[in-house]
Amino acid sequence: xxxxxxxxxxxxxxxxxxxxxxxxxxxxxxxxxxxxxxxxxxxxxxxxxxxxxxxxxxxxxxxxxxxxxxxxxx
Length: 74
Prior knowledge:
Keywords: Membrane, Transmembrane, Transmembrane helix. The chain crosses the membrane at residues 21-41. The longest helix is centred in the N-terminal third of the chain and has 28 residues, at 11-38. By secondary structure, this protein is mainly alpha-helical. It has helices at residues 11-38, 48-68; strands at residues 40-41, 46-47. It is elongated, with a radius of gyration of 28 Å. 66% of the residues lie in helices and 5% in strands. It is built from 2 helices and 2 strands; from the N terminus they run αββα. It has one domain (11-68).
């Protein structure tokens, strides 16, 4: 019986390609996430990171103001 060469890849070859595909998937996902975060919001003319920063500053300043008020005495 003759040995017929198969085109089946070895397990090592499959694992290497799988790792490469995973890296591509993570890279595409990361680029998409960064694009969404840095793209300007049409109505605000700012990106999501800037809007989040402003919201955190606003809430923090409200917290500082509230904590600086004297406590009511009984």
